[in-house]
């Protein structure tokens, strides 16, 4: 397949295609080996309730510690894992590791919901709900210990099948979240129909809330839309205390971001929770005393 058909019908050899397919073949081999070689790491990022300042959840984010390339971030291999179907294996690995984390948290008496990202391929995987149920039984966990995050685009790829998978998962008691809300092609009709519990505002709208009035308007409207639909609203990409207070004053339910914590290795979450202190409420200047 290094051959390319020219406009005039002639077949030419294209070495760049050869190189690219060679590279992707070796990446796929490396990904397959990475599970056995124990190169994936489960990182988590805490989700904080604005009103109480408590850690109510944690999002599972996978990292690949490559022997030569070092830390490889998900953006560099998740899209490829989706194209090749490897993502199904990876999702099972993430679910397994997340279940282990849930067990540790439960043992410590902490109720922290673990959020796991699903991709389009996972939604097309008819076995996923059954495999998930088996996992819960084996680990003696309640489905309500988990939240599954799906992007609008993953749903809109095949809305009918996505809806079937999501309905089966939801019937088991697992919570569902719409991730990166506002960035994909979405249909409000589907949002209304799907059994979702949470709406996650994409970080691109949150990062610059301090200086961008347009972003503030989008975030405020999205919070209202979510609440009107009966959903919990979470903001990702909270990078400063100022944005924390802005979101809190807009009645956003939960926040996640570098200001509170970057993603950390899963085994450090308990320690992080012990050290976490929510920012003090901002005290408004006292009104001038009437004379
Ligand atoms: P996502 O699900 O939207 O995850 C949130 C991303 O935003 C994470 O990037 C997180 O580190 C980053 N983030 C959180 N707070 C801040 C902040 O305050 N500032 C900035 N600049 N970034 C922040 P990460 O870990 O690199 O993951 C990127 C994407 O890769 C995820 O986006 C998700 O779509 C995908 N991904 C990660 N792990 C998995 C996985 O296990 N399975 C699947 N299917 N996808 C995954
Ligand atoms: Mg996510
Ligand atoms: Mg997101
Ligand atoms: Mg994202």
Automatic annotation (TrEMBL):
GO cellular component, one term: membrane
Domain EAL, residue spans: 24-277
Keyword terms of this UniProt record: Membrane, Transmembrane, Transmembrane helix
Biological process per Gene Ontology, one example term: signal transduction
UniProt KW Nucleotidyltransferase keyword: no
Coiled coil: none
Record-given protein name: EAL domain-containing protein
């Amino acid at each position: 397949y290094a051959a390319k058909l020219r406009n005039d019908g002639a077949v030419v050899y294209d070495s760049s295609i050869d190189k690219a397919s060679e590279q992707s073949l070796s990446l796929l081999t490396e990904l397959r080996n990475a599970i056995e070689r124990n190169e994936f790491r489960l990182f988590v990022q805490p989700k904080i309730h604005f009103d109480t300042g408590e850690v109510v959840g944690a999002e599972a984010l996978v990292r690949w510690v490559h022997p030569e390339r070092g830390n490889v971030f998900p953006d560099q291999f998740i899209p490829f894992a989706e194209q090749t179907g490897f993502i199904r294996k990876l999702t099972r690995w993430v679910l397994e590791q997340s279940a282990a984390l849930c067990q540790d948290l439960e043992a410590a008496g902490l109720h922290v919901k673990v959020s796991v990202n699903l991709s389009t391929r996972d939604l097309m995987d008819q076995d996923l709900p059954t495999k998930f149920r088996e996992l819960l039984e084996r680990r003696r966990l309640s489905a309500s210990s988990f939240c599954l995050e799906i992007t609008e685009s993953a749903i809109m790829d095949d809305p009918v099948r996505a809806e079937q998978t999501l309905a089966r998962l939801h019937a088991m008691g697992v919570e569902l979240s719409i991730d990166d809300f506002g960035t994909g092609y979405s249909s409000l009709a589907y949002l209304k129909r799907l059994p979702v519990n949470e709406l996650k505002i994409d970080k691109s709208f949150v990062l610059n809330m301090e200086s961008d009035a347009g972003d503030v308007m989008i975030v405020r409207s999205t919070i209202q839309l979510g609440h009107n639909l009966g959903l919990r609203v979470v903001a990702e990409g909270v990078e400063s205390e100022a944005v924390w207070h802005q979101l809190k004053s807009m009645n956003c339910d939960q926040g996640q971001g570098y200001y509170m914590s970057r993603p950390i290795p899963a085994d450090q979450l308990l320690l992080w929770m012990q050290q976490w202190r929510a920012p003090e409420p901002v005290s408004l200047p006292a009104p001038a005393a009437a004379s």
